[in-house]
Design goal:
- By secondary structure, the protein is of the alpha+beta class.
- It has one domain (3-347): Cathepsin B, Chain A, CATH 3.90.70.
- It is 19% helix and 16% strand.
- It has helices at 41-57, 73-76, 139-160, 187-193, 258-268, 279-282, and strands at residues 3-5, 60-63, 122-124, 176-181, 245-248, 271-275, 284-289, 300-308, 313-317, 329-333, 341-347.
- The strands form 2 sheets. Strands 2, 3, 5, 6, 7, 8, 9, 10 and 11 form a 9-stranded mixed β-sheet that branches.
- Helix 3 packs across helix 4.
- The longest helix has 22 residues, at 139-160.
- The protein starts with a strand and ends with a strand.
């Protein structure tokens, strides 16, 4: 079991776009394990070029060597828009599932309530500590499980200590939040047992697989993560966390307003969402990520767990381990890289 942690500064996310559009690092030298050599001159030169680009554009974040750079972006990024049915590619509000799943039929999610007024300028919600997806493009499974764990945390906290229901408030990012233990759910179960064919080659939000007629999420110890497309095989008689409900704020392919996203984080503890990741995102080490390039789509699923209006940024939780970004987190400005697309909440 883990503890809820709020990280020092900024959270980043990596995920995948359609393969043809994804940036690659295959020209970089590999080490004896077949991973990118973090000590190569070629990688050092690429980082230097990124720093020059950051300076030229007046951006305020830093980049450097981190463990996520061992992998090609095609390995890390798993958001696959092309796996969505045609109706989900329409740019229109909708509250419905990402894909037409195999039976049993999942229920229609409840529409997100109207955002409340008077939200604080700084807020950190409920979430578990960052995990590491490794070389499998399973960010979609991690983003799904992150939101399920948040839903359980909010439910348990609401029952156990009403004073803590409003999240972590003005807690600093360097503090360890709360004394309660986190649920530790199995990403491998979602990866290996989902009915949509989602895999290490990619997928999308799979919260529908944890609600309705499906049994829910199971403990990590019942089906431990292997970063492979392992067969669906887990322990007998697992404990199940069955989600009561889930919904998109708008749809899988649209970006909700900042106000609506804040309201959902405040009400539900956090939201899972998408973002576009490039090599500067992958190399992120600190500061406020304010990449001003314009992208037409997203390629990675992450979790948004808080905000800071002074920075004009979301606190983003990634699935690349604690060696990436600021202990596994990133600050990313509200308008950067389509962050927040497909934002969704869940309840337990």
């Amino acid at each position: 079991m883990r503890r809820v942690v709020i990280v020092l500064g900024i959270v980043v996310v990596l995920c995948a776009l359609p393969a043809p559009a994804q940036q690659r690092s295959v020209t970089l030298p590999l080490d004896k394990d077949g991973l990118v050599d973090l000590h190569s001159v070629a990688l050092a030169n690429e980082i230097a070029a990124m720093r020059a680009e950051i300076k030229a554009n007046g951006w305020t974040f830093t980049v450097g060597i981190n463990p996520a750079l061992r992998y090609d972006l095609n390995q890390l990024c798993g958001r696959r828009v092309e796996l969505l049915p045609p109706d989900q590619l329409l740019e229109q509000p909708a509250v419905r599932s990402v894909t037409v799943m195999a039976k049993p039929v999942k229920p229609t999610p409840t529409p997100t309530p109207t955002p409340p007024t008077g939200l604080p300028p700084y807020y950190v919600g409920f979430f578990t500590t960052p995990k590491d997806q490794g070389s499998c493009g399973s960010c979609w499974a991690f983003g799904t499980i992150d939101e399920a764990e948040t839903a359980v945390l909010v439910n348990y906290t609401a029952k156990g200590d009403a004073a803590d229901r409003d999240g972590h408030g003005d807690a600093t990012l360097t503090s360890v939040i709360g004394a309660h233990s986190d649920p530790d759910m199995s990403e491998q179960y979602v990866l290996s047992c989902n009915p949509d064919g989602y895999s290490c080659n990619g997928g999308n939000n799979a919260l529908a697989f944890l609600t309705g007629s499906y049994p829910g999420a199971m403990p990590e110890t019942c089906f431990e993560y292997t970063a492979t497309d392992a067969a669906c095989s887990y322990c007998s008689n697992p404990t199940w966390w069955h989600l009561v409900d889930w919904a998109y704020l708008t749809s899988d392919t649209t970006i909700p307003t900042v106000a609506a996203t804040k309201a959902a984080i405040y009400k539900y503890g956090a939201v899972t969402a998408y973002v576009y990741v490039d090599r500067t995102f992958q190399a992120y080490t600190g500061g406020v990520y304010n990449n001003t390039k314009t992208y037409r789509y997203t390629n990675h699923q992450i979790q948004l767990v808080g905000w800071d209006d002074t920075l004009g940024a979301w606190l983003l939780k990634n699935s690349w381990g604690t060696g990436w970004g600021i202990g596994g987190y990133m600050w990313i400005t509200y308008a950067s890289c389509r962050v927040g697309e497909g934002a969704a909440w869940a309840t337990f």
